[in-house]
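Q: Here's a chain of 310 amino acids. Please give me its 3D structure as tokens.
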Amino acid sequence: MINFNNEINFLKPNIDIDYNSVVSIDYKEILAQLEKRYEINKNQIELFNGYSSSIYSILKFLKLKYCFIYSPCNLEYKEAASNLDYEVRLINRFENLSLPIKKQSIVVFSNPSYLDGTYYDLEKLFEYWFSMDATIIIDESLLDFSNNKSSIKFFKEYSKIYVIKDLSKFYSNTELNISIIFSSKDNIADLRRYEPRNKLSKFDVKYLLESIKDSKFKSISNSINIKNRIEIEKVFEDCRYVDYLFKSNTNSILIKLKDISSFQFKKMLKKEGIELLDCVKYDFIDENFINIYVNSQESIGKLKKVINAF
């Protein structure tokens, strides 16, 4: 079975680690590497033991009433906000980005977006959020798959901004339980007061350190992922069951179907040895959509033969 439902980068950093030699965590080194890699001061970085941990930590820290989530989005935000007694409101970004929010609320926006990989120019939205005195959480977990600019550029204009990155996806390790939050020095200092000092696995830190030190990985990964994504898009462009292909900037492709449900379509592919992700659980996604992730040339070749035979 060829798997096209894996969110993790199918390419891996060029690293060779002897985990038996890993003795302790060097926080200074990992912060220095992250500072260099993401061009942000180390005092504006806080590390977390996994993606869920960073989301729960920031929402508990902020303690506001309303949380507006521009969706589809990773469901962990809605789950965490609901569990922490926020009043959660969803905004369908496919239909209307201009819906109003309440003053002094939290807004959550993934950029590039989750599932469809769209990169948004957020200038106008930031102006509106500023005017509403909102606290802004931008999820940039998929940004490393593109060459687009980070929202950290807005830090100089507005203080209530937090950028979250789950590092496991781009650095190709489902077991990598490290995520990061970027914000102003004052925000990070306040947030850090509520965080334990030693919360990371020394093995995760070592993996991340060696991955970042592979200086060629980002350029090679992005070059191949873009090339392979375009190949997949070409495969589906002429498929009679495809209504619309969303313009992706990541390793994720969202496709709107016609004349067939996602359940039927996936069943047809599964008979031919190809498995796709079931994405109907996400907000504003129904049985007309399928989600597919970039894979190797060999896998894409098999996919092309199957799709062309329909």
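Q: Can you summarize the key feature?
A: Residues 217-237 form the longest helix (21 residues).
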